[in-house]
Write a structure and sequence with these properties.
single chain, alpha/beta, Glutaredoxin, six-stranded mixed sheet, two-stranded antiparallel ribbon, 5 helices, 20% strand, globular
């Protein structure tokens, strides 16, 4: 994993803007995001499926990645502004040195969103994360709406999140909630 991420560091972890699937895909073109079970800093197991019904920004990053350090403050702001609207950021650290380096880094940056520790298996689930940062915007139904590889313009994240938040949350049973229709008796 370290070798692959070093390639990502020099090849994909750069200050140039490189975006795949930058705009939010139409619903019919979205595929379900794979579920994972990863531990957070408190040792609690986190499943991506626990966030179904919310818009999720899923960020694969590392403490040594310069562009990741640029994007993290943006994600903190998105979390702060949109948490009450059914939005969550999940950071997936791909650091080989684990929580020993991640906990102090997260504390120093004042990260206000959930961080979990990723691994090779998690990277494979998402199509082999070859460069950091790699960020997925996931809609309320758990489908990948956008994929960003490398440093991405802040406006792309802001616009994508806002667009996804405009979509109503699915009701129980997976259907989209619609406003109730009131029938009036004559």
């Amino acid at each position: 994993m370290a070798a692959a991420l070093l390639v990502g560091f020099f090849g994909g972890c750069s200050t140039s803007v490189h975006v795949d699937d930058a705009s939010v895909k139409p619903d019919k073109e979205r595929k379900s995001a794979p579920d994972f079970a990863l531990k957070d800093a408190d040792g609690k197991l986190v499943h991506l499926s626990d966030y179904r019904g919310k818009v999720v920004l899923l960020d694969f990053w590392a403490t040594w990645c310069g562009p990741c350090k640029i994007e993290i403050p943006w994600f903190k702001e998105l979390e702060r502004k949109n948490k009450s609207r059914g939005f969550a950021v999940i950071g997936v650290s791909m650091d080989d040195d684990g929580w020993d380096v991640v906990k102090p880094f997260v504390r120093e940056l004042g990260v206000n969103y959930r961080v979990v520790m990723g691994n090779d298996s998690t990277a494979q689930l998402f199509g082999s994360i070859d460069a950091l940062p790699t960020t997925f915007l996931i809609d309320r139904e758990g489908k990948v709406a956008a994929t960003h590889v490398g440093l991405t313009d802040k406006k792309d994240f802001d616009d994508g999140v806002e667009q996804l938040l405009q979509t109503p949350a699915p009701a129980a049973g997976g259907h989209i909630s619609l406003p109730p229709v009131v029938a009036r008796a004559n």
